[in-house]
Amino acid sequence: MSKQILPSLAACAALALALSACNRAESPSDVAADVSDAQSDRTESVADARMDQAEVQSDTAAAASSTDPDDRGDAIEDRAEARYNTAIAEAKGDLDVAKEGCESLSGTAQADCKKSAEGAYDAARQSAEQALEAERARSDATQKLDN
After folding, report:
1. How far apart are CA 69 and CA 81, in angstroms?
2. Cys-Cys crosslink for 89: which of 21, 49, 73, 75, Cβ 3.0 to 4.6 Å?
3. Does residue 12 belong to any structural domain of this protein?
């Protein structure tokens, strides 16, 4: 019987140790380094998305001013998708930076901080999705002018 209890106690001790490490505050220098890395990643991702958006803007310039409603509608949608991708890159970057900053906190404060960051991300994502859907509807309406 004691042979069965010993592994169970060891497993419980390991679980307790693992759980105690959750939501533990990191050192200020570690947090600063992690936040700096996340900010650099955000800057790079957003810059890439903005470059892609500028490229789409340029590539669709002729279609956007075309007399053909199908071409104009396609340009509207392509541009909207590029704006969406940029907004998502910004929101994801903000989320990652905020979550790294939350690591300076401990316990429920850290968990609440991360939930708040995720809430802000969800709100930004939903806003971007709504804007995309509105532009898709505008694209469809523009293309229907041709029919």
Report:
1. 18
2. 49
3. no
- Spatial CB neighbours of 71, under 8 Å, sequence gap ≥ 6: 62, 63
Report yes or no on 115 lying in a domain.
yes
> Domain for residue 80, yes or no?
yes
Structure pTM?
0.82
Residue 100 in tokens? 């790294």
DSSP 122: H
Domain count, the chain: 1
Write the single-letter amino acid at 61: A
Distance CA 121, CA 118 (A): 5
Helix (H) or strand (E) holding 106: none
d(CA 37, CA 96): 10
In a domain, 68, yes or no: yes
Range of the domain at 121: 26-144
For 87-131, the pLDDT digits (tens) are 999 999 999 999 999 999 999 999 999 999 999 999 999 999 999
Alpha helices (runs of H) in 1-147, residue ranges in sequence order? 2-21, 28-59, 61-64, 69-102, 107-144
